[in-house]
């Protein structure tokens, strides 16, 4: 399949939290920058914002009250891939993942090995546990004991896909994973084919939701594969999710929350979800905006609309609530 050169650039990301990041990424693309630079700079914005509780600085800690982060990067032109998992004290794990993608071997590092590599390569290190996140951990642990509450929450991954003016594509992910997860737990986000996949000749996709389920279907790869077979971005994402859900349910198992966004080499965008899901898109033809997707039935159909000013204001208020009112 020959690569299609688009008429413009496109960038999109998961959840409202990526809006500022993809706005920056869009400016990079508009000035002729690469898709790789755009997705990494977009993710960095989210990693650096402590109010976004599921990514980077201020990310929700594990059961031992330690912030362990996962991130990945993939270049669609070369298929180069890099990732880190269960890494602590690295300010921008997405940049560490991108650095690893340039290696021939040892492209996926975890835990202490990833941290040691980051120090050798002079990446900025910092304590990623904020007072707010520590307080959230204290509140949730108390409620677990008093109310028999499930600990797991706050597993929203930021994932970004981009297409640049040269027709090159890239994608990246970053997350702190499940709130109060077991130390060392890794979800789908840093796994090639599950949390993300990118091939500039076929498309790019990222996933967010319950990693334990997303990994079972390699949903990002499946979405890109379907685009490579000629499906539109929307049809590819929805078919991948719908068929995966059917396989799991036929085996008597439940399916957790899953959402996918994707982009084809032609610049058309797609989304699939089994929950209410916010995402943001921008292009050379449209300023970055937040959209809300909601399932409308059991066949994968969705309603998608631009987020209202009321929704956006409510989101902003929630970001500033004290932990006592959130957890």
UniProtKB/TrEMBL annotation:
Any Pfam family matching the protein: Asparaginase_2
Entry GO terms, CC: cytoplasm
Residues the record marks as active site: 157 (nucleophile)
Gene Ontology molecular function, alphabetical: hydrolase activity, acting on carbon-nitrogen (but not peptide) bonds, in linear amides
UniProt site positions, description: Cleavage: 156-157
Binding site for substrate: 185-188, 208-211
PANTHER family cross-referenced by the UniProt entry: L-ASPARAGINASE, N(4)-(BETA-N-ACETYLGLUCOSAMINYL)-L-ASPARAGINASE
Name of this chain's protein: Asparaginase
């Amino acid at each position: 399949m020959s690569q299609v050169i688009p008429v413009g650039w496109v960038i999109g990301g998961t959840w409202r939290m990526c809006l500022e990041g993809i706005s920056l990424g869009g400016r990079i693309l508009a000035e002729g920058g690469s898709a790789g630079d755009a997705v990494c700079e977009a993710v960095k914005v989210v990693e650096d914002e402590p109010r976004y509780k599921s990514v980077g600085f201020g990310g929700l800690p594990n059961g031992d009250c330690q912030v362990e982060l996962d991130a990945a990067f993939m270049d669609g032109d070369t298929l180069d891939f890099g990732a880190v998992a269960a890494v602590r004290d690295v300010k921008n794990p997405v940049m560490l993942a991108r650095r690893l993608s340039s290696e021939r071997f040892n492209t996926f590092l975890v835990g202490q090995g990833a941290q040691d590599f980051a120090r050798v390569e002079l990446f900025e290190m910092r304590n990623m546990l904020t007072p707010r996140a520590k307080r959230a951990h204290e509140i949730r642990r108390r409620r677990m004991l008093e109310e028999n509450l499930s600990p797991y929450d706050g597993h929203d991954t930021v994932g970004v896909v981009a297409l640049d003016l040269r027709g090159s594509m890239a994608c990246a992910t970053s997350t702190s994973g499940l709130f109060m997860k077991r130390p060392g737990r890794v979800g789908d986000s840093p796994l090639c084919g599950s949390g993300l996949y990118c091939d500039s000749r076929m498309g790019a996709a990222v996933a967010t939701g319950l990693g334990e389920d997303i990994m079972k279907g390699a949903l990002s790869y499946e979405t890109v594969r379907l685009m490579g077979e000629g499906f539109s971005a929307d049809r590819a994402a929805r078919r991948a999710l719908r068929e995966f859900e059917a396989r799991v349910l036929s085996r008597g198992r439940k399916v957790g929350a899953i959402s996918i966004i994707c982009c084809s080499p032609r610049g058309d965008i797609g989304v699939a979800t089994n929950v209410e899901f916010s995402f943001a898109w921008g292009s050379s033809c449209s300023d970055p905006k937040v959209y809300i997707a909601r399932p409308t039935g059991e066949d994968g159909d969705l309603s998608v609309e631009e987020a209202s000013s009321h929704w956006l204001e409510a989101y902003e208020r929630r970001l500033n609530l004290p932990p006592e009112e959130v957890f």
